[in-house]
Amino acid sequence: MDLGLKDKVVLITGGSKGIGYACAELFLQEGARVAICSRSQSNIDTALSGLAGARGYTADLTSDAQALAVVDKVEADIGPIDILVNSAGAAARTPADELTPAIWRTAMDAKYFSYINAIDPVIKRMGARGSGAVINVIGNGGKIASPFHLAGGSANAALMLASVGLANAYAGRGVRVVGLNPGLTETGRVAEGLKAAAKASGSTQEEALADALKRIPIGRMASPADIANVVAFLSSARASYVTGVVISMDGAQVPVVV
């Protein structure tokens, strides 16, 4: 299927690793013009060595000023952003008894505001031009409360509402916004979560992984490429009537209808 993504300008936050990197690979294969963003220049350099034709930008997206600066730079270098894929930021997993107001606030900065700071300038420009798509890779922690991920899960829940609310606000101006909630995916972030779960339960990381896999009916974690395939479709004109929804990709682990 031709997704019609050739020459589209795509900005992927968190594009140097994991799901973001897989998205960058796929968009390049589809002929898009790809920019990736990370707070680490070394991560950008490593990623670009495998992403021929992509451009890399360094920014701490918890800063609205840095987010705006990177959006301005991408549009000056490549052109108006057609597609924004947010996959940056992750809140540290913290047991409930160890949470403090500062940790809750840090989690919101790390996940919620790192997305909002990028979305705000981009979606307004998309709306002014009359077209665009924003895909927010969020996470099922916003739907299923975990005692080890309450702060980060709360940020995810806020992003889910922001995604569908912005979709409603901008639909009449030709902009689509979709949230995507991966379940367990083969990334470094999930490995860190398994390590935290193992520590809390007094088990090994291998035992924590085996226990996690038992709870996924499809029998495996998602690969980053699994998520990227859906991101690319949702970004394309083939999904022109898909907006204002949050789609779960968790291998049927949580069989709910909302």
Automatic annotation (TrEMBL):
Gene3D superfamilies: NAD(P)-binding Rossmann-like Domain. Keywords: Oxidoreductase. The keyword Oxidoreductase applies. One of its GO terms (molecular function) is oxidoreductase activity. It comes from the Bacteria. Belongs to the short-chain dehydrogenases/reductases (SDR) family. This is SDR family oxidoreductase. It comes from Rhizobium lusitanum. The lineage of its organism: Bacteria, Pseudomonadati, Pseudomonadota, Alphaproteobacteria, Hyphomicrobiales.
